[in-house]
Amino acid sequence: MGVSFDKVDGAMWLDFDVQPAANPVSATDRAARLADPGFGRVFTDHMAIVRYSQGKGWHGARVESRANFPLDPATAVLHYAQEIFEGLKAYKREDGGVNLFRPDANARRFRDSADRMAMAPLPEPVFIEAVEQIVRIDRDWIPGGEGSLYLRPFMIANEVFLGVKPSADYIFAVIASPVGSYFKGGPAPVSIWVSENYTRAAIGGTGAVKCGGNYAASLRAQAEAIEHGCDQVVFLDAVERRYIEELGGMNVFFVFDDGTLSTPPLGTILPGITRDSIIALAREAGTPVREAPYTIEEWRADAASGKLKEAFACGTAAVISPIGKVCSASGDFTIGGGAAGPVAMGLRKKLVDIQYGRAADSHGWIRKVL
Ligand SMILES: *Cc1c(COP(=O)(O)O)cnc(C)c1O
Predict the structure, then answer these.
(1) 213 alpha carbon to ligand 1 midpoint, in Å?
(2) Which atom in ligand 1 lies closest to the alpha carbon of residue 210?
(3) Which residue in the list 210, 307, 309, 349 is annotated as catalytic?
(4) In which residue ranges of the chain is CATH 3.20.10.10 found?
(5) Residue with CA at minimum distance from ligand 1 atom 5
(6) Whole-number mean pLDDT of the chain?
């Protein structure tokens, strides 16, 4: 039947052995790297690591200098892709403190991902503590203004074995990357390509969990989008090939002329924390939100008739990206004249203001780390 790992208590706690980097990047070099960090190429001085082995459970929690992993060529993750990850950000407040946004939701989703991928479940408090340790020790790397520190927790199967089975050993780690304001001068609308040759997820598959394999499988479709002059790919459902699912790494929303919002239902899509937060903010403001299937034919017809006012994509990295143009083998169409719409921009501002501590956090989403 199921996969069995050593019982992990939901409230389990580990003390991290903190060993500050002996040779951190100098303040001058750090300032140069923070001047224009882009996304995902600049990294902080430290990483957090926790190990798991069958029989011993989670152990060896450390914060140390960011360094290579020595991996035997037969390490399971290199062959069978037993790997999961998360993405969340630390935001610098105007008072100099630092906020995390809903890290408990990332910790819970990480456990769900581990379960689906037959990996050892990491206790949620250990996930959150590892993230907070990195934020604290690398706080000088958090950009001010509209920048943030992108945190990347991940777990890999570390058993040296070529047999196909759930690994007995795992490495959980957190690395961090300062990122600039995703858009200079406000988010520019993106163009998206409707993938008719490839699908992302099927019922019973791994679409709803954050595993690297989903991304590997999306790259060919994303390349097709770029070949057609588009920024991003949008996937349709794998059964009827009609229902809009999501982008390679972002959920989607539709805004209608009757003031309602709609977003594809959970199931095969990734349950985005940004998606969930937008639903809550919209409903709180009195906007009805449907979680309902929506086809590409409806999208095209509603854009043409004017019933559809806006469409946007959402996720932690870019928050909200308006969708200006949709391209497919059967023709292109624009939404709202191809410009960013007021509903997308209003929700974006509400969410970002909460994240940076400029607006009241009535949902208990903010965790002050510093
Ligand atoms: C991470 C991710 C999202 C967005 O999730 P957030 O929690 O909002 O960052 C959407 N789709 C996919 C496929 C993802 O991997």
Answers:
(1) 14
(2) 15
(3) 210
(4) 190-355
(5) 272
(6) 95
Q: Could you write out the three-class secondary structure of 57-108?
A: EEEEEEEEECCCCCCCCCEHHHHHCCEEECCEEEEECCCCCEEEECHHHHHH
Sign of CA dihedral 242, 270, 364, 142: negative
Predicted pLDDT at 187: 84
246 neighbors 311 (Cβ within 8 angstroms): no
Report the residue count for the chain.
Answer: 370
The ranges of the chain annotated as CATH 3.30.470.10 are: 5-179
The pTM of the full predicted model, rounded to 2 decimals, is 0.97
CATH number of the 190-355 domain: 3.20.10.10
Ligand 1 in reach of 209 Cβ (< 6 A): no
Determine the residue of 116, 251, 321 to mutate for testing ligand 1's pocket, defined as the one with the most ligand atoms within 8 A of the Cβ atom.
251
pLDDT digits (tens, 9 = 90+) for 64-100: 999 999 999 999 999 999 999 999 999 999 999 999 9
pLDDT tens readout for residues 11-45: 678 999 999 999 999 999 999 999 999 999 999 99
User: What phi and psi, each to the nearest 5 degrees, are found at residue 48?
Assistant: -110, 140
CATH code of domain 5-179: 3.30.470.10
Catalytic annotation on 56? no
What mean pLDDT comes out for the span 348-352?
A: 97
Centroid of ligand 1 to alpha carbon of 251 (angstroms):
7
